[in-house]
Amino acid sequence: MLRTSKKLILIVAVVVVAVIFIFVFNGSRQANGKDIVVEVSTDKSSYTAGEKVNIKLNLINSGSAGACLSESSIGNISFVSLTRDGTVVETRSAPSYFLTSFSQILKSRLITVAPGSVMKLSLMSGFDPGLDAEALSTTMPEDTSGIATFYNIEKPGQYELWLVYEYTGEPSDDCTDTIKGPTNVAKVTFTVK
Amino acid sequence: MHTKSVNIKIYKIAPLVWTIAFFLLFSGQAGASIVVDGSREFRDGVNECLNTYRNAPGIVGDVIRELEKSDNEHRIINSTDWTNTVNDGTKAFNGTGTGTVTRVDKAELEVYKRSFPELVNKDFCTAILHELWHAVDADRGEWSLDKLGGIKRNEIEATVFQNFVHAIRGVDPRTSYGRVDISQFVLVGDDGEKNSVTTLAPTTIPTPTPTAKTETSVSTSFKHVAPGSYSEIYVIVTTGSGANIKITLSGPGVDSTPTQTSASDGKGIAKFTWKIVSFGNYNVSGIVNGESFSSRVNVQ
User: Who among B147, B154, B177 is closest to A100 (CB)?
Assistant: First the structure.
């Protein structure tokens, strides 16, 4: 009888430990920015002044769990540094209005990226009348609208861009494994002649 | 007390109106201060939109024509971002005025519409016109950080403007922004009834007809009630008795509900008052008996 009780207690203890282990293990698998590896490239290595520059990003889920990423370059990509021949390029910032709340737009673009899978994004330059030059731009949410920053890439030189991906929209109930924090800082270079 | 009177334009000379309408309908290019960049298909789509509404009486046509006559360039380009951004972040706010870039994409709009039920009645042209309200706000230097119900006042105004387009198209008004209910700001009518906008405006794209109508006049004035603190803008609409009037004030410091409604009294007079907290240009727009009107008052 005593022996049976000891076996039962042992089984219960093993089950409890297993449950705790699984719970803790799953908790630690919450995706964060460090689980996402950003690779960045350009469609060409060299451009003429005023030509459109296309920055291409691969967001690779290197973690062991699915990760929710917002499928939008605007709002989620920010520049850590953009220099031309070692000097910070000219910038300007201005507010932007959207069809609806910008942070809600970012939330609506959340999708789950499975472990080992890749989300592809691109960031295309365009002419900015404010700088009167070809420019790359990023936009970050501010309330329901956004603040856009334009970076002059018209002038000839060797450009070096460091960027990160970080989800900046509202939390989502539908995509709870939204990554927390920024990814690695990725670097790309290109030349404007 | 400063006063100014503006008479509503009533179309009386049909041949001339038809000639102008025909010209505008078939002109292929937007005006010089609206520049459309993109593929032939994209440019045609945007120009078709502008041509459709340029001649609409009231605020919708007024806004397009105002941008086309502006000294600032307002560029419309093909981009999935769907934004309106100013060329000068200071001049957009301080009354000086600046140009803008509007980024729109027809296919991407459908993606947005699947995620946001509030956009269900927003076709490509209506969505462009919503963004062009931001453009005209920037052109006047009237962008603002003010909020109403947690939503920026400029977005409330753009949605009111969008609902004028909805009324012309005969579709339900938009009542939320970013899934936030803003019906108290963008609907009109004594009870804020959902269909009040559509019942006050034409339900089809208006074609000018030379009919005799009640002459309506609008007078605007202002008074510095508490100098340095706040002023009031007054609008008196004189029209036929018992007319339903919906009127909206927009500008840099409106501190009352922007849209008001009232019926004219037995003498055909309706009076409206708004509290304001900033100097600057204020625009008055409204509808009476299916006719749109607009006016402007500069408070200094």
Answer: B177
SS3 of A72-96: the string is CCCCCEEEEEEEECCEECCEEEEEE
pLDDT digits 0-9 by tens, B48-88: 999 999 998 889 999 999 999 999 999 999 999 999 999 99
Query: Are B179 and A104 an interchain contact pair (Cβ–Cβ within 8 Å)?
Result: yes
Q: According to the CATH classification, is domain A32-192 in 3.40.50.1370?
A: no
CATH class for the region spanning B217-299:
mainly beta
Low-confidence residues in chain B, pLDDT < 50: 1-31, 189-213
Q: How many CB pairs under 8 A join A and B?
A: 82
d(CA B85, CA B125): 18
pLDDT of residue B212: 39
Residue of B nearest to A133 (CA): B87
Q: Token pair 């296309």 is at which residue?
A: A54
Query: Tell me: the pLDDT tens digits for A2-17?
Result: 567 778 787 777 776 6
Closest to A95 (Cβ–Cβ): which among B81, B86, B179?
Answer: B86
User: B3 to chain A, minimum CA–CA distance in Å?
Assistant: 34
Domain spans of chain A?
1-30, 32-192
Q: Which residues contact A123 (CB under 8 A, 6 or more apart)?
A: A54, A55, A57, A73, A77, A136
Residue A100, chain B, CB below 8 Å: the answer is yes
Q: Domain ranges in chain B?
A: 12-200, 217-299
Amino acid at position A165, single letter: Y
DSSP 3-state of B22: helix
Q: Which string of b and e fits B251-262 if b means at least 16 CB within 10 Å?
A: bbbbeeebbbbb
- Minimal Cβ distance to B154: which of A97, A103, A139: A97
Instruction: Name the residue of chain A whose CA is nearest to B178's CA.
Output: A101
